[in-house]
Amino acid sequence: MRKKQWKIKLIHHTHFDIGYTHTQQEVLDLQFLNQNEAMDLIDANRNRTQKAQFRWNPEATWALKKWLNSADEKQKERFLSMVRSGHIGLDGLFANMHTALCRPEELIRMMDGKRELEDLTGIPIDSAMITDVPGWNWGMVPALYEEGIRYLSAGTNHSDRIGHTIKTWGDKPFYWISPSGKEKILLWVHGKGYAWFHTALNKRENLRNKLRYRRIKGYLNSLEKSDYPYNTVLIRYNIGSDNGPPDPNVSRIVEEWNRQHKDIDLELSTTSEAMADFEAEYGDSIPEYRGDLTAYWEDGALSTARETAIAREASERLIQAENIAVMTGGKSDLDEALKAWEEVLLFNEHTWGAHNSISRPDHPFAKSQWAWKRQRALNGEAGTLKFLKDSAGGSPELSSFYSTILNKVRDEKDEETTVTVYNSNSWEISRIVEISTEFCSLLDSDGNMVPAQRLSNGDLAFYAASVPALGSRTYNLGNETAAVIENGCSINAGVMKNDQLSCGVDRTKGRIVSLTLKGKEYINRNDSEGFNGFTMVPGKFPSLRKHEEEAVSFKILDSGPLRTTVRISRKAARCNEYITELSLDAWSDEIRIHNILDRPVTRRKEGLHFSFPLDIPGGELRYDSAWGTVSLDKEQLPGANRNFISASRWLDISGPESGISCTLMDAPIFKSGELVHDPIRSGPPKLCGWLEKTEYNGKFYSYVMNNYWQTNFKADQPGRTLFRYAFRPHGEYVPEDNYRSALENMQPLLCVMGKGSPVYSLPLPSDKRIALSSLSKNGDSLKLRLVNISDSETETTLILSGNELDEEQFSMGGTGKENCKKGNRIIMAPGETVLVNIRKKKRRKVSES
Questions:
Q1: Each residue of 695-744: pLDDT tens digit?
Q2: 664: nearest Cα among 98, 100, 97, 134
Q3: Which of 9, 210, 249, 585 has its CA 20 to 30 A from that of 320?
């Protein structure tokens, strides 16, 4: 057999960890030093052969932007020259993210820095690096594609909790196809990960050279034996350890190598150059695969469930605030909004804490890193509230916000005599909302009395009917007799009812024992763990699982007719208290569950879940991944995580005639099938316990807390933590209903006391199966990100003030979407997203639309 003439593209980079081995500020100092040293090495090696000239890949944009902000003009010009000459390669991601924790629009915001760097350098960025983390949100494909990124270099951890990632995909480049099938990127999972050349922790000088011929030749021989079909290999080169330095010797090593070894050609490269060259040579033979590469490390965030929920809500509300800012023309501070996004992104960056966070959790080094990380979630929350206030022209009512519900802190009673309700979504919404006021009645703008009810928490709930898409309604407050409510909701003998649903509760255990829609039962009443049952796995042994004890108290908080709420308190394993509040509203098609776990300090290994057994004949489980939908197992690629799965917002179990959806507001991870032990840290995937197949067997678990990791994440999480769910029984499966239901819970109607800011008329899709994912503005022009939330190809026009926009009035933004526009129509595949640019035109402001 003829021996291969090998070509190795060596991608030299730092691995950007925001913490872990150093404090977060020390990390920035190291990255500044890396950037300066790399530029010196580029200059020092300019006279070498082209392949040996020094190349540097900073990996991510956040630290690089910080360096640019501190650099003087001479340094900036030097940097720009090196980018333009191809010696510094820019990659498009903010940092190394837990992408499955990110909200859909967060995946776009990860590339804010990319766009800034493109504007600065004049050079398009078409590649991205993601390092350490195994598995990625399927929504990465359309997000990267829209932003012009065509190449993704994935250098995962080589062994630690990576499941089947490298075993299945290591050095097997492929085109990763999006959920819609309309976008693709070239993904390379590096077979040796990113750390093959690591030598020492916290050391920058006199590092041992591991770039040796025998070592490289041995790896290439193993590739050849595995029938590797190409002559070119891309290898990550990162020395030292995390946040490692540029190698001052690598250019010399490469030049000497190429003189001495004729069978292996070595070349220093940027990510973009390496992958583009590979594609140019082998593009016709690169395979294509479509499916979710379900992430493996996101379960670590369950060690900080409360802060994860706060950051998750902040991200959703930031999207809402941006929409309302466009609706009202609000004078919000763009820099403040960008800062809030940065805080949310920093929380979802993969470095959660220190290397000794589990082994020495009380050490100042570990505690200081978690304090910094936690503050990112709190800052994101505070920035979001300020942005909402600026956008809406008044302080938002906080009754539906996570921290308000958890901490039972209510707003002071407002003396305003009006309240404005904003709908930031692209469809009309009717929902019950809460405000903090002493008034007891409301009139709508036509003078009609509005259904209202005083709640046990002191708030006034009222029915905000038909709040228009991207619009608002204003109500006048008073003290007249409230409107008579017909066919509302009630509770009797532990059974809550409205005109559609019935929900029964076992007062002894506190579990839900019945949930019916128009008489049809949706719960498996024979399951021993029960619906909303507490399941604690001690250690890693599901066979020893423990459950909640008998109910301590059962109390009716609200008895209708607009809202019914019951509160159940009981003991549970390793908990001070397990509290559930169940709510059913008049005319609603969903039951809301608020679970609060009050926990002591405990550092024994454990995994906490809520169980949800269902009676759905022929049930198939689906979940959303950003803008797309995934069918469990069938649309997960080989190598994807099947032990636990991160949904973006919802999951759904549907049979041919009936189903139920669940909005996962705070805890996005679930398990399907029988509970299995948490996998062993490293070793052969199957031996460790990583599943290759999974199935839906009639029950799913919401996976809410753990402390299984041996590093990085938290050892304990005492105090109260809230987990919210909205279950919606339904008939046949309709994916757009799931999308709308999730958004109505996660970006709900927003109440502002007072008249608030009036709204402008804005373009809306003519077809209701096309939804608005986000709104933004650039000067007076608008950008709309649309998504087809149905499972069929859909055609839409854009309607403004009752008239269709002409084709000259808008264009397709992003990249590669020009063919979606046919005249003034937009044609979209299921799950497809498009960015639409609306031409500048004076908009009409309406007080209520």
A1: 999 999 999 999 999 999 999 999 999 999 999 999 999 999 999 999 99
A2: 100
A3: 585
The angle subtended at Cα 326 by Cα 323 and Cα 331, nearest 5°, is: 115
448 DSSP 8-state letter: P
Distance between CA atoms of residues 45 and 252, nearest Å:
8
Q: Which residue has the tokens 């919210």?
A: 724
Contact (Cβ atoms closer than 8 angstroms) between residue 380 and residue 347: yes
Non-local (6+) Cβ contacts of 592 within 8 A are 582, 583, 584, 724, 725, 726, 727
Question: What is the overall mean pLDDT for the chain?
Answer: 95
pTM of the model: 0.96
Looking at domain 490-674+701-745, its CATH superfamily turns out to be Golgi alpha-mannosidase II; domain 4 (2.70.98.30)
Distance CA 657, CA 27 (A): 55
Is the domain covering 6-295 a CATH 3.20.110.10 domain? yes
Distance, CA of 680 to CA of 457 (rounded, Å): 46
The list of the chain residues with pLDDT below 70 reads: 1-2, 201-203, 331-333, 410-414, 840-849
Place of tokens 């003991």: 571
Residue with tokens 């003519």, as numbered in its chain: 766
CA-wise closest residue to 666 among 293, 302, 379, 140: 302
Any idea where the domains of the chain sit in the sequence?
A: 6-295, 305-391, 490-674+701-745, 761-846
Give residues with Cβ within 8 angstroms of 433, minimum separation 6: 397, 399, 400, 421, 461, 462, 464, 748, 749, 751
Q: Which two tokens stand for residue 423?
A: 């709908």
Q: Which residues contact 486 (CB under 8 A, 6 or more apart)?
A: none
User: Which two tokens mark 821?
Assistant: 């526009």
- The CATH number, out of the four listed (2.60.40, 1.10.8, 1.10.10, 3.30.1450), of the domain defined by the range 761-846: 2.60.40
